[in-house]
Amino acid sequence: MAEVAHAPEPQAEAPAAMTVSDEVAIDISGMNKWYGEFHVLKNIDLTINKGERIVVCGPSGSGKSTLIRCVNALEKFQKGSITVDGIPLTSDIKKIDEIRRDVGMVFQHFNLFPHLTILENCTLAPIWVKKMPKKEAEEVAMKYLTRVKIPEQAAKYPGQLSGGQQQRVAIARALCMNPNVMLFDEPTTALDPEMIKEVLDVMVDLAQTGMTMICVTHEMGFARQVANRVVFMDQGQIVEQNAPEPFFTNPQHERTKLFLSQILAH
Amino acid sequence: MAATNAHNVAFVADTQYPDAPPPASEVGVLGWLKENLFSSWGNAALTVLSIAFLAYILPGFIDWAVMKSVWNASSLAECREIIAARHGEGATGACWAVVNERFNQLMYGFYPDELRWRPNIAFLLLVAALAPVLFQTMRPLAYAMAGLLGLQIIAFAYKTYTGAEYAIINPTLIATIAIGVAALVFQHQRGKWFYLTFAYPVIAYFILWGGVFLEPVETSKFGGFLLTMVIGVTGIAASLPIGILLALGRASNLPILKIICTTFIEFIRGVPLITLLFVASTLLNYFMPPGTNFDIVARVLIMVTLFASAYMAEVIRGGLAALPKGQYEAADTLGLTYWQGMRLIILPQALKISIPGIVNTFIGLFKDTTLVVVIGLLDPLGLTNPIRSDSAWNGIIWELYGFIALMFFIFCWGMSRYSQHLEVRLRAGDRR
Predict the structure, then answer these.
(1) Which residues contact B31 (CB under 8 A, 6 or more apart)?
(2) Which of A71, A122, A124 to substitute to test the interface with B, most B CBs within 10 Å?
């Protein structure tokens, strides 16, 4: 499988910035979600500290995307609680907007705004949500576009860029709001194999700055390189979580073993 | 070349083929003819048939409408005499004299003669108010005014030639020149022109209905294309924003708002426009305190606008539904409020998708204005009856209806062409 081909070498030592604080960034406790009668998420308990990088994996339909979409209220949950940076997530639209300003999200299908240029995509939210002056917003946007290595595309429209470039713009767009937490919902699944690496490189780079990240991904090389913890979900519940090394080399649960054997078998 | 047997042995390319031009028969005029007119035997047969049909129809039509037509006569009988005298007994030709003689009536209805410069100026200002909405600079407005100036000079020359009174210096001419010069001087201050656009409804009301220092004109005097424009333009301008709000309401998560909007849309859409017009003209009086005199044209405007809004809402709902869910989610995750997300992200894209449907509704609305004839308002079609029952023009059909059809066609075709131009302009750059 493609993932294995570009799995980076596990690093001997994490850079200094990748240390984890003991402040809590996201706290999910006893969270349950139903779609009608269907119980999608069951008793999810997960605490993520500032600077932690969590990789969530699991078979399709296991509820992993739904889980991170609950964190910024794209999906409602019916039971339990979620607290983001000390703000409890309720149905209060003010609280939701406050959390969303604090949490950046990157989607599987990029979801760039096709009618706006790359630069406008990046400056829109800072200008309208943070009331930042246009010039300043453009400077910030160019800073992040440089960081994801595509400043020269700023005047183009999303449709003129490759998938990998679009996804890097999406990451820059989220970073322009200066979030404390970044959510990645299968950021490389919709990409051609030769573009996966450029996106993962940007994500690794981001992890090294100490950003709190939750990534739903099957990029096991990425998980080994940057994750503090790997969370394995199946049928709506967290089945196993562990540091990457023991998780990959010595999985405990039968379903984890089966899953790993399937995705690493090629 | 190395490629000859590449399909059955191991092969490595040893040359890079240079780019070559396409065969001559595929490009230029020949290529276009071949591809569009003679691409197959069926297509070629259709081409030949179409040319034969045009060759059969056109000479006779041009002979009738242009060669043997009469522009100056005071009755249909006189027309026929002139044609018989010029082209011999039994010749037929168009009697455009009816349009010539009744032109002012067809344009203004019974709007007082000496005040007709007011509808003229209202129309000129309408063009000026639309220009910033339709175009990026004001240069097209200058061209439009130059064209209208040309028309006035031709009209003056013609009138003088036929010996009629026509003052070349009149308010319409002055306004045309003033707007044209303003368009040239301020052609790059598009933003400033929007003030005129926003003020236009008030200005137009004041100019057409009168008041303050302008002599008031009753709406019973409104008629002809003036009435068509008043109803059509108001309906078009008001139905788009109302339609957007209704569509957003119907797509909303708030159940009560959703029910109200859906009920409104379905009810208005489920009733013929004529019914609503009858309600406007008769039933509405029963619901109002006795003695209130609510202007009939204003009542019609409200009904036509509501009717068009319901259709507009459904067209725009289609555009909203066509957007991927990811666009809504991306707007949400960036922390944009509902109205910011709608205004900056969702509506620009949804409206762009809906352009063909929106313009379709505009065109339909513009032509539906002719239905006001059933409640006794005299739009151009309503005027055909009094004209045709005048003993002078008794028996005239083609020329009168043909002229009205041509006028409607010019406006509707203009809207259609503009929408196609807009689609191309908006498509630039952002392909998904």
Answers:
(1) B24, B25
(2) A124
Is residue B256 located within the same domain as residue B400? Answer: yes
Residue B268 phi, psi dihedral angles, 5° rounding: -65, -40
Rg for chain B, CA atoms, rounded: 28
Answer whether B128's CB lies under 8 Å from B193's CB: yes
**Cα separation, A91 vs A71, whole angstroms:** 13
Taking the CA of residue A5 and the nearest CA in chain B, the distance in Å comes to 26
Instruction: Residue A254: name the closest of A238, A239, A243, A236 by CA.
Output: A239
Same domain, B191 and B284: no
Residue A30 CA: distances (Å) to CA of A33, A45, A185, A233 = 10, 6, 22, 15
Instruction: Tally the domains of chain B.
Output: 2
Average pLDDT on A101-130 reads: 93
> Taking all residues of chain B, what is their mean pLDDT, rounded to a whole number?
87
Q: Chain B partners of A109 at a C-beta cutoff of 8 Å?
A: 324, 326
ipTM given for this complex: 0.88
Are B290 and B150 found together in one domain? no
Q: Considering only CB atoms, which chain A residues are within 8 Å of B340?
A: 128-129
Structural domain that includes position B375? 77-111+221-426
What pLDDT, on the 0 to 100 scale, is given for residue B4?
Answer: 54
B48 touches chain A (CB under 8 A): no
On whether both B422 and B334 belong to a single domain, the answer is: yes
In-domain check, residue B178 = yes
- Are B345 and B386 members of one domain? yes
B193 with B230, same domain? no
Q: What is the pLDDT of residue B5?
A: 54
Q: Give the CATH number of the domain where residue B233 resides.
A: 1.10.3720.10
Provide, as residue numbers in chain A, all residues whose Cβ is less than 8 Å from the Cβ of B432. Answer: 114, 158-159
Are B139 and B282 within one domain?
A: no
- Judged by a CB distance cut-off of 8 A, whether residue B339 touches chain A is no
Task: Say whether A177 and B329 touch across the interface (CB within 8 A).
Answer: no
Kindly report, residue by residue over B323-369, the tens digit of the pLDDT. 999 999 999 999 999 999 999 999 999 999 999 999 999 999 999 99
Q: Are A233 and A222 in contact (CB under 8 A)?
A: no
Can you tell me the mean pLDDT for A178-202? 91
Which of B337, B340, B345 is opposite residue A113, by nearest beta carbon?
B345
Probe site for chain A from B334, B337, B343, B347 (most A CB atoms < 10 A): B334
The interface residues of chain A toward chain B in range 187-216, judged by CB-CB distance below 8 A, are none
Q: Which of B170, B194, B216 is the last residue of a domain?
A: B216
Pairing assessment for the beta strands A181-185 and A38-49 based on DSSP bridges? unpaired
pLDDT of residue B243: 95
Tell me, yes or no, whether B131 lies in a domain. Answer: yes
Q: Give A163's contacts in chain B (Cβ within 8 Å).
A: none
Judge whether B237 lies within some domain: yes
Ramachandran quadrant class, A110 (left: phi over 0; alpha: psi -120 to 50; beta: rest):
left
Given A97, A156, A160, which is nearest B335 (Cβ)? Answer: A97
Domain stops at, among B186, B216, B246: B216
A131 near B CB under 8 A: no
- Do residues B91 and B177 share a domain? no
